[in-house]
Amino acid sequence: MRAYLTMTILAGIALFAVPAQAETDALGGAPVDEQPPLSPPIGTSPPPSFFAHPTLDHVAEELSALWRNRPDLFEAVEEVREAVAAYHRGGAWRPMNVARLLDQIGDERLLPLLWALESDDPFVLQMGLKAWIAWRVGLIESVGRLGDARSVPVLLSIVSGEEPQAAIRRAAVASIGRTGDVDGIAATIAVAEESVERRAAVIEGLGQARRAVAADYLLRVSKDSADRRLRRAAVRSLGDWGNLEAWRTPALSLWRAEGEAGRKAIVESLVDTYPEADHVLRAEIAKTLQLVDVLSSASRAAERAETTEEDAERSAWRELEEAMMRSPLRARQERFR
Amino acid sequence: MIVLLVDASRDGVIDFEDPLDLEHRYDPDSGFGGLFLLNFDDASGRCAGLAADEEREACYDARLDYIVDALDLANMARIRTHPIEEAESEALVGRLTVDVASEEAVRLYRRTGEGEGPDDFTVYEFGDPIDSEDLAQGVDFAIEGLFWAASVDEWSGRVELTFTVELPDREEPLEDRAHMDVAPVIFPNHMSPAAEVFLSNLGRYNADFRSDVIDAATQAGVPEGVTEFVIDDRWTQDILLTGYMAIPGPDGPREVRAYFRSANLNYPGSLEPVFERIYQIERVPMPTLLREGGEIVFTHFHGPGRAGRAEYDPDKGFEPVNLDGVDVEDVVRYLYGSSSNRTYPHIAEHIELVWDADTLDSFGNTDTTPPYVATDGTMYPFGRVYRGHGGPAKPDFRPDPTLTTIIEAQGRQPILWLDTSWLLVAHVDESLSFVPTETERGFSLLYSAPLEAIEVLERVRDEMGGGSALLFAGRLYPDYDGWGSTSAAVTVNQVLSDTGVMAASARAAVEVASQLEVVTAEMGLVETDLIPLPFLYEDIGWGGLSAYQPGLVNGLSLNAHNYATAQPEGPVIGGVDVFEELVEQRLAPLGVTVNWIDAWDVYHVGMGGVHCGSNSERVLPDMPWWTEESER
């Protein structure tokens, strides 16, 4: 009986909805056969699938409200997506700055972007593969620029999931990093430790995760990994992590103490391991140390050169010291010291 | 007298009285010797109108086994045997052969008719007998090159010709030899002024850019002005690489210009079925394998005296993927991150390898240094080609090896490699550029100086009170076919506080310094040869860097006095753009006027600059290239 009544009520609602459509037509709306397919336009009612994505559970209510009250945000995301698709249909021979297009939507764009990351279907959207990759990287980058930890579950699912495109995984790692969310960064590192396939993308993206936990992991990989490619990638990411010009900007002031400690640890570790490295890794170490702290690196290299008894080590540290003294960053870092 | 003669003296004439011709006809290390051309042009224009890439690529005169017309014949070097007096009375048999490696690489024609026209020559099979009657008159041959040296196994580009004459009373034939070298393609450098400038015409979208470049070319007196291609590809630099081949001729050098189509691929060739499906999803027609814009090499250039070439590997030299037994639909679902029955990481990796490396095949990533003597004493009278790649750290990040191998096999302009893997677009023209200048060396190296850009802005803020001054004032981001535009303007304070821009610019400074170390160590450049041009960098999310301010080193060198580059859109203090002023002050004393180009819309916002959006053919040097070798 209850089921019967429920069905009757639902049928009544459906019946009620149809006459409203007919009234519109009777009042001069477009003929029925020219009307677009019936689907709730953005803003009128939330699609139920907002609540069907575990990665959006924590923001599902907000998303629903935004869908109803700010349909313009979702429309703006759609417009950018169309622009991306159109650009790539024309033969895209240079990357498109998708993130900047999305940034223009404004600071309230986070949830619509997360929704796009979770719900977009390239087959429905008819996006070519290059367009699809560019779209996803752009979405992720623009999310990352907001530095909002609410994005972490979605981004982490991309890092740890079945995403086949390394560029997308890398971008997701970088964007998790920009949130500064230590738990999110730690979870990302855990993915790298469990999965060889995902490790490279994590290491390459972690340079943007300027928290101690990321630097610690990168330092470990730079010293201990048996994979030379990963060691180089870790050293390079340490250069991004410890980039002194980045640490001088206001956005990172909150974590300045971690930055100083991290950069010190990078200098000590990389200077000390320099003599053992092959010439390719040495080149990368030299670049990283320039970005992190030229003067401390030069001092430490000089000190190690003076105290070692091994000719090969002394020669390596002298070479490193000279590289630091030639650095274009030296004068600037001297001035700021 | 058994004498086989070529134009060993390189004066354009075979002369049995010329001691240089005689002395050096077989003297491979002398810097003399015969030269011949690769017959890659289309002397009669028969290839015009071909539409399919495969047909166009296969249509050039070396593919024919006859001489097309007088121009075709004129571009073939000649070989001659001295009349043999004894042949008038004795039954001699002559033969002309080439070394084994050259047999695939060249074709000989022998004059069998009475006249000197193309119809008087027929194909000569190596070693075919030549009878006494002809030996008595002396025999004329013409030679054409069929393939690049790099394309023929074991062939160095040198042909060893052997002329033998069998005498009835001798067991061993008498013989004479000559050597000939295939003329290389020379890639010109900026020491030669621009003869003609090329632009893509995108209608109203790049009208301002084109107008400014045309003004600059006019001011510079570019002899043939500006030619515009109505194509849907704004990066004119990327799609076309010009060069020239030349040999001595009786009335001056015989030249064939060469035009290379970029090896940019829409998709890896071995994955065509997969991409067929992807383009169906996208609802666009399946494109050609090669970047469409590059077809101007055939539609505009290939013809009489102009050789259009497409040199590429459909999988960019990476191991092709075998799709036998593979479910294409399932692969496509996997590539999009959708649920698939199986995973195909090797296919995703192959696409990533090809697509990542593809940018390096755009010709913004290929240029030529001025002539110089290297620090190890090696002379490079034509300069060296320089290209970007990933170096030993990223060996798979490199251009298609096909063109690389061609250039290297020629041995004249061996490639100087620079690490460009830190850049998003990864082209050498984003951070370095050689321009002719009034200096002792005759040229300067412009290089990007992001740290100086930071310092300029700090001075504007701290010493000029310009923290609120705007960069990119009045400019809009971005302009993709008219979709949405917002102000790009940003204050000096904002830029100096931007973590991403500051970090990227510091990284760029270190990487450019590393590039400079390579170039200066090789070329012996000193500080006064290097001109820093300041502009900042950013990372838009792919890990590589791109110019945040318009890239000043990405300019078009028109001649020794005119350099066209993008307006820097910097802060204006006292009515003057501080970056414009700085650049002009730096280049004016070197005799260079800067022509400022409005390159913001379409170009800078599209990740490129003036050099990327233009191309040029250079004036050929007065002194023929072979003179350099002969004089060494």
Give a quick precis of the structure.
The complex is a heterodimer of chains A (337) and B (632). Chain A has 18 helices and no strands.
Word description of this protein:
- The complex is a heterodimer of chains A (337) and B (632).
- With 337 residues, chain A is an all-alpha fold.
- Chain A contains 18 helices and no strands.
- Chain A has helices at residues 2-26, 60-69, 71-89, 98-103, 110-119, 122-125, 129-146, 152-160, 166-179, 182-194, 196-205, 212-224, 228-241, 244-247, 256-273, 279-307, 311-326, 330-336.
- In chain A, α8 (152-160) runs antiparallel to α9, α9 packs across α11 (196-205) and α13 (228-241) packs across α16.
- The longest helix of chain A is centred in the last third of the chain and has 29 residues, at 279-307.
- With 632 residues, chain B is α+β, with helices and mostly antiparallel strands.
- Helices cover 25% and strands 24% of the residues of chain B.
- Chain B has 18 helices and 34 strands.
- A five-stranded antiparallel beta sheet of chain B has the order 1-3-7-5-6, with no helix packed on it. Chain B has a four-stranded mixed beta sheet with strand order 2-9-8-4.
- The longest helix of chain B has 25 residues, at 499-523.
- Chain B is globular.
